[in-house]
């Protein structure tokens, strides 16, 4: 009787790509995840599309607003972070201030005495014009008292036959003009230049005369011409200068 020998069962070698085979554990765990992501996208496709659309729309609006702020002056003023009443340099004790970022409403005095009074204006002796009460009236007192505490003398005519009694009559005279001394004219220029400086320092309103470069040139030339006149008192030694002075500008 033949002896039955046990079969030699050799182990079957595994495939080289067992890890990538479709029957591996890894494949079985990944496939459900991929299906879940796809299913999520399918279920929420509409909501995702709407969200992306809104984000693109908001981005477009921001870019448009930025371009408008840079290119259009009215929009640039609207987006300005400065308040109209706030100026760069909050005090004016020797510090220069800038004018307000936003333009102010013009305070007009019309074209007649009646219109000026109705609009809230008063005669300003220093500028010899009607000026709104809310406009700067600096150095009026200094101007009116410069002539030894008395008003300057004004006349209706060049022949000096009809004198005006006060500044109110000067401002209300129907001729629309007056005659006065050179001294009055020089003092007018002197204190108007000082008014312009103080108004600029505090960022206040500029009236028509202060903003007029031609008038400023006229006043400086007027003062220069009179200083060129021969006057022994002007050549007397009376001024001491200082050279140990170091400034800065900004």
TrEMBL record:
TM region positions: 45-70
Q: What name is this protein filed under?
A: Uncharacterized protein
State the species of origin.
Aspergillus bertholletiae
Q: Where is this region: Disordered?
A: 1-27
Q: Which InterPro entries does the UniProt record give?
A: Phomopsin_biosynth_assoc
Could you list this entry's UniProt keywords, alphabetically sorted: Membrane, Transmembrane, Transmembrane helix
